[in-house]
Amino acid sequence: MGLKMTGAKALVKSLEDEGVEIIFGIPGGVLLPVFDVLYESKIRKVLTRHEQGAAHAADGYARVTGNVGVCIATSGPGATNLVTGIANAYMDSVPLVAITGQVATNMIGTDAFQEADTTGITMPIVKHNYLIKDPADIPDVIQEAFYIARTGRPGPVVVDVPVDVSRGETEYRRRDKPELKGYKPTYKGHKKQTRMAAQAILSSQRPVIYVGGGAIISNASAELKKLATQNNIYVTHTLMGKGVFPESHPLSLGMLGMHGTRAANYAMCETDLIIAVGARFDDRITGKLSEFAPMAKVIHIDIDPAEISKNVRAHIPIVGDARDVLRELNEALKEMRTGTGKVERKEWDARVKEWKEKYPLTYDRGKGFKPQFVVEKIYEITKGEAIICTEVGQNQMWAAQFYPMDKPRRFVSSGGLGTMGFGFPASIGAQLGKPKELVFDIAGDGSFQMTMQEMATAVLEDAPVKVAILNNGYLGMVRQWQQLFYNRKYSCSCLHRGRTPDFVALAEAFGAKGILVTEPEMVEPAIAEAMESDCPVLIDFHVDEEENVYPMVAPGAPLYDMIGDMLYPVEKVHPEKAEEPFL
Amino acid sequence: MKHTLSVLVENKPGVLARVAGLFARRGFNIDSLAVGTTEKPNISRMTIVVDVEEHSLEQVRKQLHKLINVIEIVDLDPEASVAREMVMVKINVNAENRSEVVEIADIFRGNIVDVSRESITVEVTGNASKLSAFEDLLKPYGIKELVRTGKVALPRGK
Questions:
Q1: Which chain A residues are closer than 8 Å to B64 by Cβ?
Q2: Which of B66, B42, B68 has its CA nearest to residue A302?
Q3: Is the CATH number 3.40.50.970 carried by domain A371-542?
């Protein structure tokens, strides 16, 4: 016999049994029974000011801790406000459980007050979702939801709980493990495929490791480093893979793709073997697909079989967990390497080194107040040891380019969905998950205004995040594209800096600290002051308005065709002139 | 090219919406879809006919597999499976031509399931081309209403 209790009690007890320590959200009519029980629970409740903020905060918390993030919202508008956050977690494979209130089961389908078809609305953006109809199902559903969210390729799971289910009575029973007939993720890679991959690596003249967020999720850093260093292979990472391989390492090529380094993109053009680890050949990575890595054989390691050969054909697919597969691959390589085991590819090394030296990421340091300079200074003063959250757009790309990372789970950014307004609430979640760490949100003035009401949350929850607004008075990336591709016609991209808002006054109004910085000399002291404060601090950097993110591959262009040449000598990479592929 | 997928799913609310939604948002076309229970009450079988190229078929299968409620997917080889579809056709008839229609139905091993003064309803089971041939023959008489079930199929033997 299980313990008799209400559905709401069973729900909260299930969360406690899953080890949930913090939950982000906002109560509402149909959730009152649940919040009534939560009041007495040891789970920390963080009241955000908008449900979108709750979802992003849970997301940020999940990314830095590796735990499942939990958010909660009421029926109707509460649930629909979560939608952006859920979609964001889905695109970036973040383990998230979203609990939504629902109208009573006998009211479902009647267009009742605050009714929305939450499971229907979220179906395309979740790993799975549930509508609980019976309080007796609560423990099993919550257990399954957490299991699905964190295993395999992680993702968001929505659990919709009608109010009468919360109020109803049930017995609490917990199974040892969930029973899911149709869900069995593959962790171990195929042995034969792994050996084929090892063979390909040993015979490759110009291999490149292309690593994404999947390697961070599976905690594969150590195995990845082994693979790269023991076999002398250059590594390029996606935005989501930032930090999984130390960017300070000589084998790192930095980020690839639309705003990646020339070294990384050129290497992709001439490589004869791509070793893709937990990455999905997104359009921002490949550029023009038909001209992407024309000579490369592809080894694709991913836990999600549907990602393999979706955009780029994989010659050697390996379905499995990145860490497990890399461990096996390293063992196979160790066995198969002959002689001294030292792998040398002198010509390739020289070519890549030349690119790296010739084309470092840089900007015009001569005049003006550059946003890149601000990011560089933050890097310098924090010694590269802060957790960096970003918004979306130019600020995000500059953060990725000028804040190199040597460790995983410290760069929190909306990669797949590209959600402006993600960074700030995510930074609150990250700060609460890692209270001892220094957390910066590198923001734009446009993005920050999308979720800035969460400043109240940061203040009340003692989350001393530092918001660095690279304020150029524009939706900067939109403006950049308008400048480059639409004849500099700035249609609806100007935000009128100087007229509204006064960010410093805004921060003060919320009870945080605000600092205005209008010239480069003020940057260092402002950052230092922010770091000394134990409250949330907003620094409003009034940087140059028309600075662009370079280098850049125009949308739809091939990777070798990079613009931003005012600072660089023009060099075309000619894939056709490189050696023939070995296969 | 047309492929017939036999998909075992957990018999849970919303499963059909999940499958149909997946096809819609990934841009895969469903030719026909038939759902029903199996010998196990908690498991249903969907027979889905899709018209896609080999590469897309791979994606369809993999994406379907990602649905938590999908247990098993088999791409049925037409040579190694049996497939049937049923059609019911209501045809305009009068005293003069009724027997002709009944004759045609007989040739197709159809059953008369309803008769009235002005119409006759025939049920025929078979593969898609047989049903289409049947339909064509009846067109001159005037088809009032028609319904097809969509294909159901099982692998042969074992």
A1: none
A2: B66
A3: yes
What string of H, E and C letters represents the secondary structure of A309-330?
CCCCCCCEEEECCHHHHHHHHH
State yes or no: pLDDT of A581 exceeds 90: no
The 3-class SS string of chain B reads: CEEEEEEEEECCCCHHHHHHHHHHHCCCCEEEEEEEECCCCCEEEEEEEEECCHHHHHHHHHHHHHCCCEEEEEEECHHHEEEEEEEEEEEECCCCCHHHHHHHHHHCCCEEEEECCCEEEEEEEECHHHHHHHHHHHHHHCEEEEEECCCEEEECCC
Which residue matches tokens 């609460």? A432
Task: Return mean pLDDT, chain A.
Answer: 95
Longest CA–CA span in chain B (Å) reads 57
Common-topology check for domains A3-172 and A191-358? yes
Structure tokens at A391: 């918004």
Higher-scoring residue by pLDDT: B53, A59: A59
Determine the pLDDT at residue A563: 86
Which value does ipTM take for this structure?
0.92
- For residues A71 and A25, the answer to whether their CB atoms sit within 8 Å is yes
Tokens of A17: 């049994």
Place of tokens 């310098």: A380
Q: CA-to-CA distance for A242 and A212, rounded, in angstroms?
A: 8
The arithmetic mean of pLDDT across residues A345-374, rounded, is 94
Nearest by CB to A119, from B14, B25, B65: name it.
B14
How far out from the chain centre does Cα B54 lie?
22
C-alpha to C-alpha distance for A63 and A156, rounded to whole angstroms: 13
**Angstrom distance (rounded) from CA A72 to CA A48:** 10
Furthest CA-CA distance within chain A: 77
Mean per-residue pLDDT, A425-449 = 98
Contact B65 A306 (CB under 8 A): yes
Nearest to A471 by CA among A506, A438, A437, A436: A506
Across the strands, what pairs with B46?
Answer: B7, B35
Extract the tokens encoding A358. Answer: 């010739």
Domain ranges within chain B, ordered by starting residue: 2-76, 82-155
Sequence-distant (≥ 6) Cβ neighbours of residue A118 within 8 angstroms? A75, A79, A80, A100, A102, A129, A131, A158, A160
Fold of the B2-76 domain: Alpha-Beta Plaits (3.30.70)
Q: Which of B56, B66, B73 is most worth mutating to test chain A (most A CB atoms within 10 A of its CB)?
A: B66
Same fold, B2-76 and B82-155: yes
The percent of residues in chain A predicted with pLDDT above 90, rounded, is 93
Tell me whether strands B2-10 and B43-51 are parallel, antiparallel or unpaired: antiparallel
Domain B82-155, CATH homologous superfamily name and number: ACT-like. Chain A, domain 2 (3.30.70.1150)
Where do the domains of chain A lie?
3-172, 191-358, 371-542
Total length of chain B = 158
Closest to A267 (Cα-Cα) out of A404, A359, A363, A394: A359
Closest CA–CA distance from residue B60 to any residue of chain A (Å): 9
* Chain A residues within an 8 Å CB radius of B70: 182
**Chain B positions in Cβ-Cβ contact with residue A158 (cut-off 8 Å):** none
Asked if the C-beta of A194 comes within 8 angstroms of chain B's C-beta atoms, the answer is: no
Pick the CATH number of A191-358 from 3.20.20.70, 3.40.50.1220, 3.90.1010.20, 3.10.120.10: 3.40.50.1220
Fill in the amino acid letter for A531: M
Least Cα distance to A377 among A511, A558, A525 occurs for A525
Report the CATH fold assignment for A3-172: Rossmann fold (3.40.50)
pTM: 0.95
B11 touches chain A (CB under 8 A): no
Residue A123 pLDDT > 80, yes or no? yes
3-state secondary structure of A390: strand
**Cis peptide before A501, with omega less than 30 degrees from 0?**
yes
Nearest CB to A183: which of B21, B68, B72? B68
